[in-house]
Write a structure and sequence with these properties.
This protein has 24 helices and eight strands. With 540 residues, it is mainly α.
Length: 540
């Protein structure tokens, strides 16, 4: 693994707290050895190392992924519906490493098969996401993978083709490019089977270009909706800066012309090519020249010559939008909001946008911008400025408590109930960034239930042993303080003392270390040694 140089321009380096780093650039305070490593390395070197991970998962996380099992259960299919046998089994995460051609037969509805089989890939990718968030060594990469999945959102819950393509999309597109060059990232997304199906470009043809992908490419993936100059519609000459080759934003004409540029970008899905000819049915990318609109085009004020080589028109569009200053502002701004919060200063936003644009030819463009943000004074002062999403909350709780975690279908469903439908968010916008969405009355109730369910091992993710939270304390006071500090960090304050006071438990009360850790069973996740338990049940 190559070491990264630190302090690449921008704001004066600042020193954020260990708690902030692990809560924002990781999925919460993890095992003691991870916290010790951060203290030993210092924030700058820890961030630099996290931004240069090796390919793939670390060995410990890989072992967790290989050991993971998810239940699949369904009744037998009976006539007159397609017939197939019932299933009830625990299966490994077999789709994660599978090439798309091995999974594509799941899209064939002529094959009798339960829906749980066809949509199994999404569940496995979601489970792997949880395992990596909790156990992964390269935490910052996992944080950014979550960010980019939201940015380049696809909904794998409705369309079986998107679901089947999701392991490849996660592995070869999002994870491979999360810290790399944005222009390369864009092309990987544009040519991915998941996106080609989700935004309908695989059906785009000359004379009937589908605009869905092109519009979201401009509005969501690159320049941003704030740079949509809809008042000019198709009058490109009137766009500020256009005649100088520097249009200030995009218009509807750019969307229409870009859609024409991406005609012919499709999928080997068995579609007919005319006569007896058909595409293979592999699920891989396909460029069909006969489907491409070959005539001249104009995008962002630049005229494209007709009859260009294969994929040249689409790649030219990607070049133009990746090089556009509005893309630099939009993308770097989104990263600032995710890592710092809504309080990012104009100075940081400007510095991040400037670095994004200057580094647009560099293979580690995204990593450079993330490093600048993470080492900024804004970041160091941003404690409490962001609301954790349900995935972040669940992973942080598990990492803080030391639960011997494994993912389950039930937990994926609980995250969805709390508002975060992993790889199943319908609109192309991705989950909302605004705190208000996550902190509604129902959202808060679901967040409480999420944490309570993990504490009670409601979904079979691993039991909580409260004794592991007390850091060797022998009396109630230090034990309550230790637990509050593990779960709340610097926000713990007097929480431990207040809890003991509410329970009328004296701080000097000794802990009975000889009692079992969980006499009430997994449902309660408590201990008769817990100060002031008072909940006497069978086994206590």
């Amino acid at each position: 693994m190559a070491k990264r140089k630190t302090g690449r321009g921008g704001d004066t380096p600042a020193t954020p707290s260990d708690e902030l780093i692990l809560g924002r650039l990781a999925f919460g305070a993890g095992p003691a050895d991870e916290r010790a490593q951060l203290r030993e390395m210092g924030p700058a070197e820890w961030i630099a190392e996290q931004l240069a991970p090796p390919d793939g998962d670390d060995p410990a996380c890989r072992d967790r992924l290989e050991a993971a099992r998810l239940r699949i259960r369904y009744d037998a299919g009976k006539a007159p519906a397609p017939e197939y046998p019932a299933a009830d089994a625990l299966r490994p995460l077999a789709t994660l490493a599978a090439p798309i051609e091995a999974l594509w037969p799941l899209t064939d509805y002529k094959r009798p098969m339960a829906g749980a089989e066809r949509f199994r890939p999404r569940l496995e990718v979601a489970a792997a996401c949880l395992i990596r968030a909790v156990h992964g060594r390269w935490q910052l990469r996992e944080v950014l993978v979550d960010f980019w999945h939201n940015h380049f959102n696809v909904d794998a819950s409705q369309m079986v083709q998107v679901n089947v393509a999701l392991p490849t999309y996660d592995r070869d597109v999002i994870r491979r490019h999360a810290l790399g060059n944005f222009r390369d990232f864009l092309e990987a997304v544009a040519g991915s089977t998941a996106m080609l199906y989700y935004l309908n470009n695989r059906s785009s043809r000359a004379g009937a270009a589908n605009e869905n992908f092109a519009r979201e490419l401009f509005e969501l993936h690159s320049l941003g909706r704030e740079h949509y100059l809809n008042e000019f519609y198709n009058r490109w000459r009137e766009v500020p800066g256009a005649l100088k080759g520097q249009p200030g934003g995009f218009i509807d004409q750019d969307v229409y012309e870009a859609a024409r540029a991406f005609t012919g970008w499709g999928v080997e899905d068995g579609s007919g090519l005319g006569g007896a000819d058909r595409l293979p049915a592999s699920g891989r990318f396909a460029y069909v020249e006969s489907w491409h609109d070959q005539y001249q085009k104009r995008v962002l004020g630049v005229e494209f010559d007709p009859f260009q080589p294969a994929r040249a028109d689409g790649r030219k569009v990607l070049d133009l939008i990746a090089d556009h200053p509005a893309t630099a502002r939009h993308l770097s701004g989104k990263l600032c909001r995710r890592l710092v919060g809504e309080g990012a200063s104009p100075r940081l936003l400007s510095a991040a946008a400037d670095l994004w644009w200057r580094a647009r030819r560099q293979p580690d463009q995204i990593a450079r911008v993330v490093e600048l943000i993470a080492r900024s004074p804004d970041f160091a002062r941003s404690g409490g400025a962001r609301v954790r999403r349900p995935l972040e909350l669940a992973a942080a709780f598990v990492r803080a408590t030391g639960i011997d975690f494994s993912a389950s279908e039930g937990l994926v469903g609980a995250l969805a109930a709390a508002g975060q439908r992993l790889f199943g968010w319908g609109p192309p916008t991705g989950h909302p960034e605004e705190a208000a969405y996550w902190l509604s009355a129902n959202g808060m109730r679901q967040r409480w239930q999420l944490v309570q369910g993990l504490m009670e091992n409601r979904w079979g993710n691993g039991s909580l042993d409260p004794r592991g939270l007390v850091d060797g304390a022998r009396t109630a006071g230090p034990a309550a303080d230790a637990i509050a500090a593990r779960l709340l960090g610097s926000a713990a304050g007097q929480v431990g003392a207040d809890i003991l006071a509410g329970l009328a438990v004296p701080p000097e009360r000794p802990l009975d270390a000889g009692k079992p850790a969980n006499p009430c069973g997994a449902k309660w996740g408590c201990s008769s040694a817990w100060p002031g338990c008072g909940q006497r049940r069978d086994g206590c």
